[in-house]
Amino acid sequence: MSLQSMTGFGRAAAEHLGAAIAWELKSVNGKSLEVRLRLPPGCERLEQAARQAIQKRFSRGNVQAGLTLTRSGVQAQPVVNEEFLRDLAGLAKRLEEQFGVAPATADGLLSLRGVLDIPDALEDEEGRNALDAAILAALDAALANLEAARRDEGTALGGLLSGHLDAIAGLSASAEADPSREPSVIRERLGEQVKLLLDAAPALDEQRLHMEAAFLATKADIREEIDRLKTHVASGRALLAGGGPVGRKLDFLAQEFNRESNTLCSKSNAASVTAIGLELKAVVDQFREQVQNLE
Hints:
By secondary structure, this protein is an alpha+beta fold. The protein has helices spanning 47-57, 82-99, 106-110, 125-177, 183-200, 206-219, 223-242, 247-267, 271-291, and strands at 8-16, 19-28, 33-38, 61-71, 79-80, 116-117. The strands form 2 sheets. A 4-stranded mixed sheet has the order 1-2-4-3, with helices on one face. Helix 4 runs antiparallel to helix 7 (223-242), helix 5 (183-200) crosses helix 6 (206-219) and helix 8 runs antiparallel to helix 9 (271-291). The relative contact order is 0.14.
């Protein structure tokens, strides 16, 4: 399976017995899948089928789908539920007087469900079913276009994320190979620190100082952090190679990268390792930012 971004646009148009059908779909980032449909009056019966078609294609993202249906020839006369409209207008007036809300407009009231109905020009069930099938077929074409756009964007994101993982792996290797981690360098640095303390306070127990220094050196060792960073890089590469909806897993992985880079910086006892840790944090932030766009 290929990677998919959560952003994209898709459109498809069709004709059926003089009726012009057009779908426009837009997708943006979201924690889960949220579908918003905008259907013309008289097409509310298609809402469930349209939602199911979208849910079969995608698992995450805020998807907005709008249908435009234009029929040539004689149009059916619109029917207004005047009693319901009168009740709504009265309610809007009371809200305006009591709470100071903006006055209701005619187009706003008419757009509410149940106020305005445009009867189907196709009276027989067979003709209605044929039109519904054409509308849903056009939706499927629009969804295919949206999916292709999301897939193209996902491919580009995969390249960026792969580059970030390479950078994290390179920085982890630099930290591992940093000269400050050489045993001889560590011994020399600890010896100098112990000597400074003894010169300042000769009464201090030299053996105890060496024990404390060795303990601090052990706590400052970043071997575990480097090993975990390597493991996380391998996991990230496997997820990218596997494809599919892996955005949530990569987001969790980004949190683990951030935790290890923070620990590496806090443990560092050399300016060179601290610099590597700070650069690592910057790359991890970029990685996590891009992951947010992935399904």
